[in-house]
UniProtKB/TrEMBL annotation:
CDD domains in alphabetical order: cpPDZ_EcRseP-like (cd23081), S2P-M50_PDZ_RseP-like (cd06163)
Cofactor: Zn(2+)
EC number(s) per entry: 3.4.24.-
NCBIfam families reported for this sequence: RIP metalloprotease RseP (TIGR00054)
UniProt-recorded name of the protein: Zinc metalloprotease
Annotated localization: Membrane
Listed GO CC annotations: membrane
PDZ domain residues: 101-149
InterPro entries reported in the protein's UniProt record: PDZ, PDZ_6, PDZ_sf, Pept_M50_Zn, Peptidase_M50
Topological category with respect to the lipid bilayer: Multi-pass membrane protein
């Protein structure tokens, strides 16, 4: 039951993403031939006025097939005959919808159960923060070169510092102060800590909840950027990467923990989908975005057939990576 709930939740994220493409295509006068959720053989299908709505066998991804998006067409309603700006608006709408959904879900969660703020509520006696003079009520705004907007920002910086000294900047009585704190290893939690607890905003206003939704989404984007830097530097391990099976497993665990936990995980995945799709790689939205920006800036139209070949190769590479990551999920599963 929990796995089914997890798959349904992931399906909603895909629907929202594809709905962004679909809506902007319609607004820009492009004929949509198929709106599909999932991949592989068709399970269910309904034929609309001009669009085929389908549910596919494999609950992975989805797509909006537009007339002229895989080659040239003389039809004025074809995607390839639209201006670069119109094509760009259609392609970028999917990732934007995922980011908006993340903001909305985080805001709803905050309004229902509150959220943690990077304002110190309690300092553990004789721990590094206490020794260096940090007190209850201090608002942490920066650690080293990283701006702190959420408690998660602070935890991430402390965790990734791996015990190295931290320059913590905080505000007390409208004055900004900075102190150097050296984290210590907590034996029970097996991670580095500085000895402070955050303030819980238990009953946020609507404005605070919406603001938290924006701030948390921004924080996730920043953390994901840091993760990609770790990958490019070759410092990420095999246990840091998961595929579809990992997502389903974690989603199922989140569903078992309650609806709010599932919503939180869905918000996290939605933001990740938005970020992943704007990576400038062929077959991803980001690859199209780069191409249409090139057309918009230079005024030169790219060859649709060549673009189709490039995207076909890119899709094949992505599917290969998907298979490899799935095999990794089976052989080296990430533990919950």
């Amino acid at each position: 039951m929990y796995i089914i709930m997890a798959i349904l939740a992931f399906g909603v994220l895909v629907i929202i993403h594809e709905l962004g493409h679909f809506t902007m295509a319609k607004l820009n006068g492009v004929k949509v031939e198929e709106f599909a959720i999932g991949m592989g053989p068709k399970l269910l299908g309904i034929k609309g006025k001009e669009t085929q709505y389908s549910i596919k066998l494999l609950p992975i991804g989805g797509y909006v097939k537009m007339l002229g998006d895989e080659g040239e067409s003389s039809d004025p309603r074809a995607f390839n005959n639209k201006s670069p700006l119109r094509k760009l608006s259609i392609v970028i709408a999917g990732p934007i919808m995922n980011l908006i959904l993340g903001i909305v879900l985080f805001a709803i969660i905050a309004s229902m159960r509150g959220y943690l703020s990077p304002v110190v509520e309690k300092v553990v006696p004789n721990q590094p923060a206490d020794v260096m003079g940090i007190k209850a009520g201090d608002k942490i705004v920066r650690v080293n070169n990283s701006k702190i907007s959420t408690w998660e920002d602070f935890v991430t910086v402390v965790y990734t510092a791996n015990g190295n000294p931290l320059d913590i900047t905080y505000i007390r009585n409208n004055q900004t102060n900075t102190t150097k704190v050296v984290p210590v290893k907590d034996a029970e939690q097996n991670r580095y800590v500085v000895g402070i607890y955050p303030t819980t905003v238990e009953k946020p206003t609507a404005s605070q909840s919406i603001t938290y939704g924006f701030v948390e989404t921004k924080s996730l984007i920043k953390q994901t950027g840091s993760f990609f830097k770790t990958i490019f530097k070759g410092k990420a391990s095999v246990n840091d990467v998961g595929g579809p099976l990992t997502i389903i497993k974690f989603s199922g665990a989140a569903a078992k923990a309650g609806i709010l936990s599932l919503m939180a995980f869905a918000a996290y995945i939605s933001v990740q989908l938005g970020i992943f799709n704007i990576i400038p790689f062929p077959a991803l939205d980001g690859g199209y975005i780069i191409m249409f920006l090139f057309e918009l800036i230079t005024g030169k139209k790219l060859d649709d057939n060549k673009v189709g070949i490039i995207n076909y190769v890119g899709f094949a590479i992505l599917m290969t990576l998907m298979v490899l990551v799935t095999i990794k999920d089976i052989l080296y599963p990430i533990k919950i």
